[in-house]
Model the fold of this input.
Amino acid sequence: MVPPLGTELSYQNDMAARTGRCYDACVPLLNVFDYEELARQKLSPPFFDYIAGGADDEITLHRNRESFKRLELRPRALVDVSKVDVSTHVLGQGIEMPVLLAPVAVQRLAHSEGELATARAAAQAGTIMTLSTMASASIEEVASASGGPKWFQLYVHRDRNVSRSMVQRAEAAGYRAVCLTVDVPRLGRRERDFRNRLEYPPGVAHRNYIGEFQLPPLEVGAGDSELSASADVLIDPSLTWDVIDWLGSFTSLPIVVKGIMAAEDARLALDHGASAIVVSNHGGRQLDGAPATISVLPDIVAAVDGRCEVLLDSGIRRGTDILKALALGARAVLIGRAYIWGLAVAGEDGVTQVLSMLRNELELAMALCGCRSVAEVGPEVVYSQARPD
Done:
């Protein structure tokens, strides 16, 4: 269990004893970056690199963080912020903070309970978990693990009957939306995984496909990884915009389109019936050299013009990042690596602690900017351009 602040010393000494590595015992676990460093020490290098890495030279991976850093917040004075409400609604679902958990595949690479621990932590925090098609726990297992609200993320299989069945299973299990990922016609070139020849340990598999599709034996050689080899078999590269219409023909769940980085694509998603859009570059794991999501968010918000909710992921590590995204028009954000670091360090308790940290940071940032509720956060919270040093 993650200790309360002030007792991190014994916890970190225990971690050092178990991992054989030393984390600076004088530095408490105060933020997401502390969890990342502890996760680096705990996980094997191939598993850490799978979570941390991006595509090619990882330019976009780093750009996501740098672009948040360049945005400046506008402090306000003499506003009564004795009470700050960070709750909001996404697709009509009330959540305790504007932070959702993004889909992350094979979470049992980070912790033995994987997605089950994540689902419980999300429910405890009062927010939404999104389960990956390529999860290491099944749709039904995760539904049984917690009663909290959940979305199902979909990679469309080459055999659409497989994907139809998964969506119907998710709907029957109480999931509340389908999150269609559209930025992976082919998997990005994740060179860390290739160098490591990433392979899953025994017992870790894409469990949603069991009973739906028999994955052929995969050989992971030089310049490959088990994830990329399986993605080549499991994901349909021929999708066009009519896939949204196809989904709408057999499910009543709202369709969230994830992976939008261009205003014209946002309009096309709306034309085909999307209920929400996630501005996402897949955490820098797909096209290297693409812009940061926070940089393109204003254009996409303008293109949508209030016709659907816009969310954002990629690069969120601080409550101030969340506030900046809200100020530029996002209804909420999704986090990925941030909560996986917590999962790797301490399972469910680690995810819970990361979510609590982000909530507390957001509440403080809102107070210092004079915002008493998420509804009061607008574009005036950030400067329109970088100010001179």
